[in-house]
Amino acid sequence: MPERNNEFGKFGARGTKGHEFVARQLDDLAGFIATPIHQRRGLLARLHYLTRTDHARQAAREAGLTVTDRTLKAWLDGRRGPSRKNLERIETAYRTVRRQNVARYLLARLNRRGRGTRVEFHPLNQSQVPRPHQRYVEFRTLNVRRWDRIVSAWTAGDDARLDDVWVNDAVIDLGSEWGQYEYVSNIGFAA
After folding, report:
1. Which element (helix H / strand E) includes 140?
2. CB within 10 Å: which end of the chain, N or C, has fewer?
3. pLDDT digit string (tens) for 29-63?
4. 114 backbone dihedrals φ, ψ, rounded to 5°
């Protein structure tokens, strides 16, 4: 059985770790606010999301947004604007709270009562690799049925755990060729 790649790109191969594409796809499925936070509309949308209920305010505080209610009211009324550091905190808190709120619904859609979700693995780019060092890596699909630990790692924002879980719960099911799909050019799935 192959192990993880130690010197990826040594001969010119290009690709990205699969768990990074999984995180991006889950973020797309979560439906974050599209307007940038630097625009007034984007800032207000995020602040309303984080302050509309007591539960949302508590989750925002746990996620790192620790400003007073007076400051929040001034931001919402437009009397003051948040500093760059606070904009980053608002964005981080918003993404964390949104992931937590969407995780259960997203998990149900991905697991589909045990049927799972079909995942496409697009092979890495070997166009810069000299001919004798190229290997045949084909497009693969796999039905991933266990999304619980993957979505949990994504919700927590733990990149290292997501990488470990993605390889051990999904990629390894590709069989003896799983090491060829640790780095890919894209991973696609829908829910």
Report:
1. strand 140-144
2. N
3. 999 999 999 999 999 999 999 999 999 999 999 98
4. 90, -10
